[in-house]
Design goal:
166 residues; mainly alpha; Protein Binding, DinI Protein, Chain A; 3-stranded parallel β-sheet; rod-shaped
Length: 166
């Protein structure tokens, strides 16, 4: 009877240890930001966003120069104008400043929207590749490596890059 209890206890320990080892092998990690940045589509998208940003920046700078020129002109002519005319000119300048501010806000919104629309399919492609590799390797959980302190699971980066052919 004593041997049976010992045998059952040893069997339970063996099963528990085997299950624990099997559970650990089903964990992996990957740095998705690093993966996305390695994808050729990301570089292309970043270039497109940067070009759009430069275009907006050029338009804003041109508007600022025009505003500055008009301000200097109005200040130089202020002595020769009536109070009423100077008031109208200041309102015009304030209107230009408001328009420029609205344009800057719209440009920023457009850039963010463009970035989202360009990066969404790239992140979805990366996620699909991660899921495919994890499923093929029998991995149940894939953690974001960028925020992990201890990384003892399998790193899927090389396998996912191979899947994406990058």
């Amino acid at each position: 009877m004593k041997h049976l209890k010992t045998l059952l206890f040893a069997t339970a320990l063996f099963i528990g240890a085997t299950s624990f080892t099997a559970a650990q092998s089903k964990l992996a990690h990957i740095n998705t930001q690093e993966l996305i940045k390695a994808m050729p589509a990301y570089t292309k998208a970043q270039a497109e966003i940067e070009q759009m940003g430069k275009t907006y920046e050029a338009e804003i700078q041109a508007s600022l120069k025009e505003l500055d020129k008009k301000l200097k002109q109005y200040n130089a002519e202020a002595e020769a104008q009536t109070q009423e005319e100077n008031q109208k000119r200041m309102q015009e300048v304030e209107g230009m400043k408001q328009s420029l501010g609205q344009f800057q806000q719209q440009a920023q919104k457009d850039l963010q929207e463009k970035e989202f629309n360009l990066l969404k399919p790239i992140t979805e492609e990366a996620k699909a590749a991660i899921e495919k590799v994890a499923a093929a390797q029998g991995i149940n959980y894939v953690f974001e490596a960028g925020s992990l302190i201890v990384k003892k699971g399998k790193d899927l980066m090389a396998d996912v890059k191979a899947e994406l052919k990058i």
